[in-house]
Amino acid sequence: MAVKRTEIFEWISTIVRLAMAGILIFAAIPKLMDIPQSIIAVRAYRLLPEEIVPFVGTMLPFLELTLALFLVLGLFTRIAAIVWLAMMAAFMFGVIWAWAKGLSIDCGCFGGGGDVEEGTTNYPLHLLERLGFIALGTWLLLLPRSKFSLDGWMRGGN
Amino acid sequence: MATKNEKAAAARAQAQAQVKGKERRTTVIIIAVSLLVIAAFAAIVFFIVNSAKVPPIEDAHAPQTADASGGIPVGTGGVAGEDVPTGVNRVDIYQDFMCPICGQFEQVNAADLDALREDGTVAIYYHPIAILDRYSAGTNYSTRSANAAGVVADAAPEYFLDFSSALYANQPKENTPGLDDATIASIAVGVGVPQAIADGFKSGEFTKWVYAATQRASVDGMAGTPTVMVNGEILDQTQVPYFQAGALKAYLEALPKPDGTPPGPGGE
After folding, report:
1. Is the dihedral of CA B217, B220, B224, B229 positive or negative?
2. What pLDDT band is residue B116 in, cutting at 50, 70 and 90?
3. Together in a domain, B78 and B180
4. A152 touches chain B (CB under 8 A)
5. Which of A78, A79, A117, A121 has the most B C-beta neighbours within 10 Å, making it the best mutation to test the interface with B?
6. For helices B100-118 and B247-254, what crossing angle results, to 10°?
7. Residue B69 is part of a domain; what is its CATH number?
């Protein structure tokens, strides 16, 4: 009975892992296609000093793709989950900060950003989305074992 | 005896498994580190390449009538860069030619702004920027149209305003390929721009300037289009509802000049 539950969890973790990778790729691609817009989106939060805004705006999609690669391969999955959660925490902080300051921005997570008419920014929806992503990351943090992973190969199983 | 052999065999198997485990761990760590190093290297190359794409605005080749913040002033005679009144309130208008809300702004306020500009009440700086390139199906209409506006501001400044209006009159919908270069050129010729200049739009002479001006706009506080600034401060719609006819005009007419003197047409 106990063995069977672990097996189910491993399958769920595999799906979670690949879903997170997919989300990262989906978020990175529009940014990669319009880097100037990605920079503008990061700047719109008015959180980071201007000197590093272009760097962060350019690097963000790269970080997302690299993390996606690790998740697809199932490589150091628990650490990948921690990095994911750290990114989510940073984004959530940014969204709450912008909301509190009354900034009218589009979240910028999926390649948009900084171009929304005041009043149409949808902070509650963005926060809800973030919470969903945090739930995924937390699952993987607690249950990082999954099928078809390099982690599994390293352990000698799967 | 049998037990001893069994134990020895088991110990051997376990030792072999441990060695195999260690080998696999090492392989995986090598893979991970290699991926990170390759990713870091690629990221740095990527960053360098993209930094070259968007120069700081002071380094970009700009239209000769443009100012350092990416704005094109239009003076009392309707010519870009000429007869711009001094000592009066400065209005900066940031627009993207694909932005439908900018089209609305144009419809509501263009005539009023022309009147205020012609009698010298305000100095207006137009900023054609590109923040909606991703909505033109890969054709970068926002950048192309802003570049065309830059060319006209540079080489045929007397037609800059008419060209801008014409672009809004023919504004394509978002999520379409926008207007192609030939159409933009024919619109320019339609308002009087010489054919030779209009044919030059497609060479993208001021494309880098458009990128630079757009970034500069974002640094200056532009977070969407249209953005209206008066004397460098973003105009808040809750205070001046500039999508209501006449609201912007009334506000600008009543605004005292920067030196504190009563509102009204200024000097040259």
Report:
1. negative
2. very high
3. yes
4. no
5. A117
6. 40
7. 3.40.30.10
